Amino acid sequence: MTRYTIYPDNPGDESLWNEWKGVLTGNPEGVQSFVLNAITSLKSLSNQNVAKLTAKSDLNLEDIRHEKTVIYLITPAQHAEYYSFLISLFFRSVFNACMRKMPDRKTLPVYILYDEFGHSSIPNFVSTANTIRGYKVSLSIILQSISQLNARYGKDYADSIQGGFNTYLTYAGADPQTASFFENIIGKVRERQKKEFDDPTDQYREYNLLNASEVRTIASDETLIVSSNRQPVRLKTTPYFENWTFKRQSKKGACSLVGASQDEPLQKVRL
């Protein structure tokens, strides 16, 4: 029983056992509901390869604050939903490690690029997005559409997530909701007009700086950027595969890890 206690180093700890007895004191229907919820939550771990993957870790996330480190977490695009719980756990752990204490002069900054954010759910992400920059952490999330936030978190919570970021960027081909979002945050142009030079009466005319249709149809090599209280900008971009230096770097093979164990190779997860 020791290995299953909350404090494995204390053989006399009965916290987990007491919690289990507390669950069993409920009515049969309630206990059955708890069991079904537990089975559903642990279903993915019934896959032996996933269980082996999560059994141990040789990575201390707090080291990224003191040693220059790059971590890539890559999942098959077609299995993004299946692995979403692992992705959420990993990023929640990264956020906690970065926010455990205030940084000092020796603390390294952390840059987080979270692609396909719409496929995962992070608990308390609004508070994280609003406060993590104070811990010398740059957080960027990438979505296929803003509607993904609404579908995953609900409209009100999605709006709160959007409010936690200072900079927004979009490329060509934005969906209607994303295009309308950028139309609104880019703002309007206000023109002041007079019929005659000496006419004391002013007339005003307002119109969108960019309409949603114009946001959607920007050139394929352009991007729109709106940052904080600055004016929006429209920039030319170059894909990495059209840049000789970046293209050459992308063709390099995977880095061989010094001391990495090859004794127990992890089999591919078949779904």
TrEMBL record:
Keywords: Cell membrane, Membrane, Transmembrane, Transmembrane helix. It comes from the Bacteria. GO terms for cellular component: plasma membrane. It is found in: Cell membrane. Pfam families: T4SS-DNA_transf (PF02534). InterPro entries: P-loop_NTPase (IPR027417), T4SS-coupling_protein (IPR051539), TraG/VirD4 (IPR003688). It is a multi-pass membrane protein. The keyword Membrane applies. Belongs to the VirD4/TraG family. This is TraD/TraG TraM recognition site domain-containing protein.
